[in-house]
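SAMPLE LOG
Freezer: B-3
Tube label: C17
Construct: single chain, 385 aa
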Amino acid sequence: MNETEMMQLSRLLNGLVGEPPHRVTVGAVRRKVVMRRLIAGVTVTAAAAFAGSAGLLISAHALGKHPAMSVSPRAAEPRYYFEAALRPRSGHLRDLVRSTAAGTITARPHCPGPDPYLSAVATASRETFFIACLQNGRHGVTGTRLYRFALTRSGRVTGFRLLISGNLNGLRGGALAASPDGAELAVGIAPARSGPLSDILVINTRTGRHAVWHAAHLPGGIKFNVQDLSFARNGRVLAVFGWGRCRKTAAERTCKSPGQEMVAVSHATAGGRLANGRVLFSLPSLTPDRHAWINDAFIRPDGATAIAVLSGSTGSSVLRVSTATGKPSGVLYRARTNLVIRPDPSGRFVLVVGPTLGGDLFGWIDHGNLAPLKPAAQAVYLEAW
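STRUCTURE (predicted):
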């Protein structure tokens, strides 16, 4: 496995994709947060240094102003955002809702149960949040529960409840996505004690009706691992970003690995096989650089464009990508460190997290510049608004 594939596989196995089959503990979460930042921070040219000193965070250079494509017309950013970050001193993970304007804590939502673990978060319009909570047993993860809550005008949690069909016994869930109206929720799933997420469950949050998209095995011996999910066209289109690779069997030696790509399926609530979808773009369609990789990718609600983070030895570029051509159509932001992102339900405002020597860079893209958000200099594990 080359360095780029190592980076991609590590990214697939981090907290945005789902937990490994062992029991989830506070110590495991702490190590996973550190590794997520190391994985996002290391570049191909620094891979040797990373291998020699896994405890060293790669230093980020100062960020400067630069030309970028901006959102238009000007609109107000979301009033609140969700974060899961490590406490600076204790190292414990805490889940908070903060005011975008002031950074003040307005709520402290958490997964119910004696020993739960937050694995993913997604948002819909009107400040509606969905969270996936892994359930622990004596020998490891036993299932996932999906919850929904909203925020009051003052940022307090209201209406916290388990979704209809949200008790996923025997399944490990992650990579959540909600349609803008909150009527549909997509979650990447895998058997509780297996590897990366390999299928997608789409749930109607009002009726509990659900359908499954099978992504594990595609034609030609391709195994597809789910990383990011997003909706377009009012929930009718589901976009799946992940990594397709060949299974190592004698009968499939002629298989050609597609690598990282985004695949879209229409009629998202129908279910079926991901192989019947359309490839919107792939890593080679974004760059000829064989040492680059994509950290995150999400389709926008209009379905005409997507947002992707292209990373390499010199840092990251947050790109706007045409879903018609599969080519970049603009640059939203650049940084000399590696970034992960999460857009809001409108697709106009993008949260950004990146590692620095003193802690995580955390903010949102405001017309080509970074508007900082709290917490500063902490290890952010999950983020959404």
